[in-house]
Amino acid sequence: MSLIIEVDDHNYEQVLSSNTLVVMNFCAEWSAPCRMLAPTLDELASKYEGRMVVANVNIDDSPRCMSAFGIRSVPTTIFFNGGRKVDQLQGALPESFRDKFYELSQLSM
Q1: Rounded to a whole number, what is the distance in angstroms from the first to the last CA of the chain?
Q2: Rounded to two decimals, what is the model's pTM?
Q3: What CATH code is assigned to 5-108?
């Protein structure tokens, strides 16, 4: 069972109001890089459970959310702390994600 929550145009603002770090991954089912990144995000969501919320936004189903954050390519992952953007990664580079998750997990300690 995945610990990644699904976010869309109707609930993304609620997710961003979380008191924990939020990792919002903008993806599409048809995107090979997004499918390649999925196991890494599952692994990291499990590892950092309770310290951060990991969320997927399907861009095909959430055009308002996609537009609100200026998403132009997938995968794009935005990291939020207290509802404010603190970092962003583009592409499917698993090691970059592991490093960024570790770095940002230190903020929530």
Answers
A1: 26
A2: 0.89
A3: 3.40.30.10
